[in-house]
Specification:
- It is a single chain.
- By secondary structure, the chain is α/β, with parallel strands linked by helices.
- The chain is built from 10 helices and 9 strands.
- It has 2 domains: 178 residues, Vaccinia Virus protein VP39 (Rossmann fold); 58 residues, Helicase, Ruva Protein, domain 3 (Orthogonal Bundle).
- Helix 2 links the parallel strand 2 and strand 3.
- The radius of gyration is 20 Å and the shape is elongated.
C-alpha cells in the first residue's frame, strides 16, 4: 500500500478532498472527449481522475517528484506527465485550443496568471481555483479597492467570471483562506488594441507602482501635462480609476499613435 502523502508547505499543497466540490468543478469544466487539456498541479488526483476518464491523454504539470511517481503508478499512459515548474512551462507547445484547469498553488498564483497571458493565443479557456481574494482582484472594476495591475492585464486579454466558491473545509489541510473557481475565456475582439503590449504592461505596472500616488506622480516621467490634456485623463486621478481602455490609449499614445 502506498504511504499517505504529506503536504509540503513549500509547494503550497492543500489537496481538494470534498466530493461535492470536486463534482461541481468538473461539471463546470465540462470536459469532452478529443479535447486538448492540461491540469496544473494535479496533486492527489481529485480532479485528475474524473478528467482523465474523458480526456485522453490528459496533460498534467507537477513539480513534486513523489506525486509524479504516484501519478505514473496509478494512471500509466492515460496521463502525459510534465515534471517541473508550471511557471517555466511552454503551454503553447501543447498546441492550439488548449483548455487549462487546476487548483493553482496559492503562493505563485499571480505570477502563473501572468505567465498564462503569454500563451493566450493557444488557449481556448481556463478554469482554475485560487484564493478568493485573488479572484476578487481579477474581476474587480475600475474604482474598486481590489482593482490593480492584475485586474487590468487579465481583463485586457480575457473575459473573467467567478463561477464557484469553495470553503476551506473542502481541502486537506484546510487553508486559512476561502477559495473560488474562475472561468477565463480569451477575448476574440477588442475595439481598442494595444499596438505594443509590452509597453502597455510597463505603463500599467508604473501606474500601479505607488497606488496612493496620483497619475502625475506615477506617470509624470513618461507623460507631460500636455500629454494628459491630449488624452483627456486627469493627472490628479489615481491608477485604480482608469479603465482597461484608458491604459490602452495611454500606451498607444506613448508610441505616438492616437489611441
Amino acid at each position: 500500500m502506498t504511504a499517505p502523502h504529506r503536504p509540503r508547505r513549500r509547494f503550497s499543497q492543500n489537496f481538494l478532498t470534498d466530493q461535492s466540490a470536486i463534482d461541481a468543478i468538473v461539471a463546470t469544466i465540462a470536459p469532452r472527449a478529443g479535447e486538448r487539456m492540461v491540469e496544473i498541479g494535479p496533486g492527489l488526483a481529485a480532479l485528475t481522475r474524473p478528467l482523465a476518464r474523458t480526456v485522453k491523454p490528459l496533460h498534467v504539470i507537477e513539480i513534486d517528484r513523489d506525486i509524479v511517481a504516484r501519478l505514473r503508478d496509478e494512471f500509466g499512459d492515460a496521463l502525459a506527465i510534465h515534471e517541473g515548474d508550471a511557471l517555466e512551462f511552454d503551454f503553447t507547445s501543447l498546441g492550439p485550443g488548449l483548455r487549462v484547469v487546476g487548483n493553482l498553488p496559492y503562493h505563485i498564483s499571480s505570477p502563473l496568471l501572468f505567465h498564462l497571458i503569454e500563451h493566450v493565443a493557444a488557449i481556448a479557456d481556463i478554469h482554475v481555483m485560487l484564493q478568493a481574494e485573488v479572484v476578487a482582484r481579477m474581476t474587480a472594476a475600475p474604482g474598486d479597492s481590489e482593482y490593480g495591475r492584475l485586474s487590468t492585464m487579465l481583463q485586457y486579454r480575457f473575459d473573467i467570471e467567478r463561477v464557484l466558491d469553495v470553503p476551506p473545509d473542502a481541502f486537506r489541510p484546510a487553508p486559512s483562506v476561502d477559495s473560488a473557481v474562475v472561468r477565463m475565456v480569451p477575448r476574440q475582439k477588442r475595439e481598442l488594441v494595444a499596438r505594443d503590449e509590452k509597453l502597455m504592461e510597463q505603463t500599467v505596472a508604473l501606474a500601479f507602482s505607488q497606488r496612493r500616488k496620483t497619475l502625475r506622480n506615477t506617470l509624470g516621467r513618461v507623460l507631460s501635462a500636455d500629454d494628459f490634456a491630449t488624452l483627456g485623463i486627469d493627472p490628479q486621478a489615481r491608477a485604480q480609476t482608469l479603465s482597461v481602455d484608458d491604459f490602452v490609449k495611454i500606451s498607444n499614445y506613448r508610441t505616438r499613435g492616437e489611441g
